[in-house]
Amino acid sequence: YEDLWLGGTDSQREGLWLWISGKRVPRNDWRPRGGRYENCLDFSIQDDLYKLNDYNCDEIQHYLCEKLNPESDSEVKENGNIDSATEDTTKFTAYKDGIY
């Protein structure tokens, strides 16, 4: 995928990027450029590297979700994953439809 939605926004205060959990989004590998009209966080490719980017929330893109790794001792709820990669105890899953 070239672009993926992540669960972050600065819709409450311009420039203050928060995950849907309320925690601050780290400022590394970041290339915001959209100003007040681009308030949703996506993961986009540039020069063969993925970077955090602000984007118009009305755009339709794939999205990335985080859930616990099923190989760990933790409980996991399935949500119809399509593609996934496992690393440590976290499983990241790309979904074909929706936002976040």
From TrEMBL:
Domain of life: Eukaryota
Signal peptide (UniProt feature, chain positions): none
Alphabetized InterPro entries for the sequence: C-type_lectin-like (IPR001304), C-type_lectin-like/link_sf (IPR016186), CTDL_fold (IPR016187)
Coiled coil: none
Annotated SUPFAM superfamilies: C-type lectin-like
Residues that span the membrane, as ranges: none
Stretches assigned to the C-type lectin domain: 1-66
Pfam families, per database record: Lectin_C
Name of protein: C-type lectin domain-containing protein
